[in-house]
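Work Package 3 (structural annotation) set out to generate three-dimensional models for the target panel prioritized at the project kickoff. During this period the team completed the workflow that converts sequence records into discrete structure tokens, so that structures can be stored uniformly alongside our sequence database. As a representative example, we reproduce one entry of 84 residues exactly as it appears in the project archive.
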Amino acid sequence: MSHKLTISYPETFPDALQQTKEQFEQEAKWAMAVKLFEMKRLSSGMAAALVGIDRVSFLLSLHRYGVPMIDLTEAELLSDLENA
């Protein structure tokens, strides 16, 4: 079962961004998915499902939003290297 989220916005928003209504809504969906991924609230797979694409494509698109694919602290990276 899936749920639906409805967000109200002024009808001038898409025009202000020189986008169609559909483009604006897709960009808003992407922004939400990317931000929730960046905040570590969603996995890359869950965020990809939110925008309706596969995980690899989502990860490869993160650079458009200035978000790294992998965001490890130095300690996490050193731990991963020790366990490799």
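The mean pLDDT is 93.
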